[in-house]
Amino acid sequence: ILEQREDFLGSYDIILMMDVLEHIEVTSPFLEAASAHLRPGGTLLLNVPALRICMSIYDRAAGHYRRYQKDTLAAEFDSPVFEILEQRYWGVSLIPAVLARKAILDFRDREADAIKEGFPEPHWIADGLLRTLLAGETSLWKRPPAGASLLAGIRYNKNGA
């Protein structure tokens, strides 16, 4: 994950990191290697799990080192070569489900079964309800103050300008 391919350096306008960064224990070398493949002015688009209060056995079993808030994600990019363009939470309607999963799985304290039990195939009624809530949330609330996930756009300024 730290490889910098000579033939790809400075070649890309956009790099997508969807639910990746939380799996990297030491993020600085990873972000340096990934961003080296961007053209100057290129953009990193990321999605990460949000809200430290939601960190649970499920997260640890999934290989997450952390959940982010806007300030902790911004701290990952506290460098002159990065400019945070936008950060937005989404999935505010999913927070009760994530907290319920945390309470149940942390109470059981069985990391071995956490993935199977913490992200099962939803019942069709629950699936429909959650999809409806999420659709309503995104159409009515463009910038919720919190959410189960956090999206960000970050510009890479190779020369720190």
List keywords for this structure.
161 residues; alpha+beta; 6 helices
Q: Which H/E pattern describes the elements?
A: EHEHHEHHHE
Number of helices: 6
Q: What general outline do the C-alpha atoms trace?
A: globular
- How much is the radius of gyration in Å? 17 Å
Average pLDDT, rounded to a whole number, is: 87
Q: Tell me how many strands there are.
A: 4
Structural summary, described in words:
- This protein has helices spanning 27-35, 57-61, 70-76, 95-108, 114-118, 124-140; strands spanning 12-18, 38-49, 82-90, 149-156.
- The protein is α+β, with helices and mostly antiparallel strands.
- It contains six helices and four strands.
Give the helices and strands, then pairings:
Layout: E1 12-18, H1 27-35, E2 38-49, H2 57-61, H3 70-76, E3 82-90, H4 95-108, H5 114-118, H6 124-140, E4 149-156
Parallel strand pairs: 1-2
Antiparallel strand pairs: 2-4, 3-4
Summary?
By secondary structure, this protein is an alpha+beta fold. Helix content is 35%, strand content 22%. It has a four-stranded mixed sheet with strand order 1-2-4-3, with no helix packed on it.
